[in-house]
Amino acid sequence: MDLLNPVTAVPLIGPKNEKLLEKLSIKTVGDLINHYPFRYDDYSIVRKISALRVDEIATVIAIVEDIKLIFTKSGKRMVKATVTDETGSLAVTWFNQPYLIRTIKKGDKLSLSGKLGFFDRHRAFISPEYELVRSENTIHTGRLVPIYPETNGVSSKWLRSRINALLKILPEIEDYLPREIKRENNFCELDYAISAIHFPKNDREVMVAKKRLSFDELFLMQLKAFLRKAEWENKKESVAINVSIHRDKIDSFIKGLPFKLTNAQKRCVNEILDDLETNKPMNRLLEGDVGSGKTVVAAIAIYVSHLSKAKSLYMAPTEILANQQYLSLKKYLEPYGIKVTLITGSKKDKEEGDVTVGTHALLFKRENFDNLGLIVIDEQHRFGVGQRAELTQKTTAENAPNILTMTATPIPRSLTLTICGDLSLSIIDEMPKGRKPVKTWFVPKEKKKSSYEWIRKRIREGEQAFIICPFIEESEIETLKSVKAVKVEFEKLSKEIFPDLTLGLLHGKMKSKEKDVVITDFKNKKYHILVSTPVVEVGIDISNATIMVIEGAERFGLASLHQLRGRVGRGEKQSYCLLFTDIYQGIIAERMRAMEKYQEGIKLAEIDMQIRGPGDIYGEEQHGFMKLKIASLYNTEMVKLTRENAEEYFAKLDDYPLLKSKITEQSKNVKPN
After folding, report:
1. Letter string b/e over residues 1-23, b meaning 16 or more CB atoms within 10 A of that residue's CB
2. Quick one: average pLDDT of 577-601?
3. What is the domain range of residue 467?
4. Mind giving me the DSSP string for 547-559?
5. Same domain membership, residue 473 and residue 373
């Protein structure tokens, strides 16, 4: 069996399972074997029945003396069993699992893992994990039991069974990591790491496996970035952009702007112009806080491209942001005779302009663009590599377009180099002069009422406010449960707290046109307060909104808190950010203090990295810019180690054919950027 075989090559995985596994990005045997647990349930304490302790999580191995299905008075179904070993007997109860009566028979030897409690005044296991004992090695009980990312129809128990069966028949996995790296860092063999991460005997095996697999994940990611960069630099020439002969016009354009560029903006503009001047396609990341002036830097690059008769695409992740950037670019460029058009899911200008602004609807536009010289991708982490690659094909020109990607997600420089090793980096680390810092305060529960009165007073003076409700579930996508919660909060705010004011509601499940209407109405001061889920995080610029209230602030990371705060402070008035939380201790208190003290996104990202630390052996939730299977970008030592090794071994990749094969196989069909 080969790791590149389809996942249906694994015993007992059929077409129906194949479709379900696709939701977890599992398509091949290799994908399944690299679907790692994110934590472990510790069922490793094995006791005799008489030695079990109340409230202790433990495992017993016993014989089924009796098992029956019982219907309660309320109509619920309950399976009750009695199990025994040489020291005594134990009651076991499972609720709403009637199928167990067919699975478990009298006389079966069972391994049961759970917490000892009481049922009907008798000591009992209630809904324990179980498995039939057919060999000495159990996989669901009596050990550290792996818990995997799941989807509807694919449970951890099902995944454990399939992965266990696969490990038994899979030939030894070729270890692509150079011997020198393994020896210098005391890394285990790949075969051992794969086996130990799925079915470890103890915590130490988890640590050893995780150390090796975390290194591999970051090391391969950085080698692939170097490979993409090398391929990009060896590509055909870029569309010709002549900067030097248009220098006077460029200077005149910059002088004609309604404000003076900051030194950081000037530096970034010069770095971009230097790229455009070469015959190699630009591939640059522009990083800067919300409100730092990235759009005007992009506008200058678009203007310079236009002077050389090259067209530009400006790609935004949402219709809200596309509409906003369309208006901004029109303001900067149309006085110079440059036609700006808009394409989103709901609006399509019929004629092609010199600059086309749009959402991913651009990707599905049939015809290509004539002489496309520049592609600007805003909030680049919201686009997949495949989507970004498809954009680069949108030209009829023989030469490659220049690419400028932008992000307001604050990422420390060390992480940016890891994540975007194939990109050149420009950072706008300075805010426009005269912009007042947003005063930020932590608001405890007892001060909430007086805060609402203060908000009402500011609104009576003509200002507006956002109130943000967090996602209710641990998810980056907006669930129906979260929408329901924001609607409940909206009703409470409208009827109980601000009955004298007009409130609007915004959430991610609304249609694009509905969102646009709400935002336009808020901009036109129809609403005093806009209640929203974090969908407001990207793309809303309303200068009269001076107050940002974040409910449940403890549920947000520093990057999200900072970006939400960036939605206010856009005008001349003093703006405020109120962090509402009932919890003010530990990591949460550190975050709140950092928000009160610092305004710079990159500084906050660095603090966030220090607060989080490298994570523990049972893994940590990845936040922000990208998701990894097992490594943590906050483990700065590992990031540094993999970076140094990637730089060294990329230069001599031809000497390591297995490693080269691994990264080229994974990089197939992936274009630069």
Report:
1. eebeeebeebeebeeebeeebee
2. 87
3. 439-598
4. EEEETTGGGS-HH
5. no
Distance, CA of 11 to CA of 557 (rounded, Å): 42
When pLDDT is cut at 50, 70 and 90, the band that residue 483 belongs to is low
CB atoms within 10 A of CB 572: 9
Mark whether 116 and 65 lie in a shared domain: yes
- Cα dihedral angle (209, 211, 217, 220), rounded to 10 degrees? -110
Q: Which are the contacts of 324, defined by CB distance < 8 A and separation ≥ 6?
A: 539, 540, 541
DSSP 55: T
Cα 412 from Cα 420, distance rounded (Å): 12
Quote the radius of gyration of the chain (alpha carbons, Å): 29
Q: State whether 508 and 368 are in the same domain.
A: no
Last residue of a domain, one of 384, 399, 428: 428
Contact between 91 and 80 under an 8 Å Cβ cutoff? The reply is: yes
* Long-range pairs for 334-338: beta carbons < 8 A, 24 or more residues apart: 335/256, 336/253, 336/303, 336/306, 338/302, 338/303, 338/306
DSSP secondary structure string, 372-435? Answer: EEEEEEESGGGS-HHHHHHHHT-BSSSSBPEEEEEE-S---HHHHHHHTTTSEEEEE--PPTTP
Q: Which two tokens stand for residue 59?
A: 């495992």
CATH code where residue 395 lies = 3.40.50.300
Alpha-carbon gap, residue 649 to 660, rounded angstroms: 10
Could you tell me whether strands 109-119 and 129-132 are parallel, antiparallel, or unpaired per DSSP bridges?
antiparallel
Contact 392, 671 (CB under 8 A): yes
Q: 406 with 507, same domain?
A: no
**235: helix, strand or coil:** coil
Determine the Cα–Cα distance for residues 335 and 28; give it in Å rounded to an integer.
54
Is the per-residue pLDDT at 344 higher than 70?
Answer: yes
Rounded to a whole number, what is the largest CA-CA distance in the chain?
94
pLDDT > 60? residue 296? yes
- Tokens in use for 663? 């990264």
Q: Are the beta carbons of 436 and 569 closer than 8 angstroms?
A: yes
Please report the pLDDT score of residue 306 as a whole number.
95
Whole-model pTM?
A: 0.69
- Looking at residues 103-121, what average pLDDT do you find? 94
Higher pLDDT, 396 or 127: 127
Assess contact for 217 and 230: CB atoms under 8 A.
Answer: no
> From CA 532, how far away is CA 211, in angstroms rounded?
41
E strands, 476-544, are 503-506, 529-532
Per-residue confidence at 671, pLDDT binned at 50, 70, 90? very low
**Exposure string (b/e) for 261-299, b if CB count within 10 Å is 16 or more?**
bbebbebbbebbbebbeeeebbbbbbbbbbbbbbbbbbb
Taking all residues of the chain, what is their mean pLDDT, rounded to a whole number? Answer: 85
Whether 275 and 353 map to the same domain: the answer is yes
Residue 203 lies in a domain: no
Q: Are residues 422 and 454 in the same domain?
A: no
**Alpha carbon 301 to chain centroid, angstroms:** 29
- Residues 236-261 have a mean pLDDT of 89
How far apart are alpha carbons 474 and 575 in whole angstroms?
Answer: 30
Write out pLDDT tens, residues 406-423.
Answer: 887 666 655 666 666 677
Contact 206, 200 (CB under 8 A): yes
Nearest-angstrom CA–CA distance, 38 and 325: 39
For 69-82, letters b (16+ CB in 10 Å) and e give eeeeeeeeebbbbb
Residues 417 and 546 in one domain: no
Q: How does residue 225 score in pLDDT terms, banded at 50, 70 and 90?
A: confident
In terms of domains, do 123 and 265 share one? no
Of residues 297 and 444, more confidently modeled:
297
Residues in the chain, total: 673
Tell me, yes or no, whether 131 lies in a domain. Answer: yes
